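Notes, Module 5: Reading structure tokens.

Key idea: the token line is not a picture. It is a compressed description, and you learn to read it the same way you learned to read a sequence, by spotting repeated patterns. We will look at two proteins. The first is printed below with its tokens.
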Amino acid sequence: MNVKRTFGTILTVLGIIGIIYAGYGFISHNNDTRALIVASIIGIIFFVSGIGLVKNTKDEV
């Protein structure tokens, strides 16, 4: 079991959820703009780091 690849997948999914949440908040004209900006930045960071972990982790046999 490759822990890095699993953790990368979890980070990627959390990043996607954060980006979707922020996008939905912006579309629905939510007044809490600061929280949406923070959620989108954290979502992007999680997404990019998760993709990086999945791409850079080599398969162990």
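Here is the second protein, with the sequence above and the tokens below, as before.
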Amino acid sequence: MTTQESNFPLQKTEDEWRAELDATRYSILREAATERPWSGALLDEKRDGVYTCGACNAELFPSGTKFDSGSGWPSFWDAVNPDAVKRVTDRSLGMVRTEVVCGTCGSHLGHLFDDATQTPTGDRYCMNSLSLNFKEETK
């Protein structure tokens, strides 16, 4: 288990999450697995809207902050607000990285890197496509 054991506004048991999420999404969102690069349905999403948590549907990233990082995963340079996502130190795999989790339910989304010099923040929120849903902006 990763950061889900912390205090987040939305609390559910792992059995409740298992009942709500398919096996692949559960593995990514609740066990911090990573999907294969270039495999996610949202990688090439270009419509205006907002990306939400694949577990609880909390709003996470506005489409205007999405960019092509060339990494094979949807990438964003900023969240919808400072509380939308939380940053957690990840010491797995023999390295230190910054894990990104949903600020509402604590589900694993991906990792944050500071290597996006082409963006206003320099940040690259590298997210698993399956950790996200997309809500198109209605006009």
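Summary for the second protein:
- Residues 23-31 form the longest helix (9 residues).
- Residues 47 and 70 are 19 Å apart (CA to CA).
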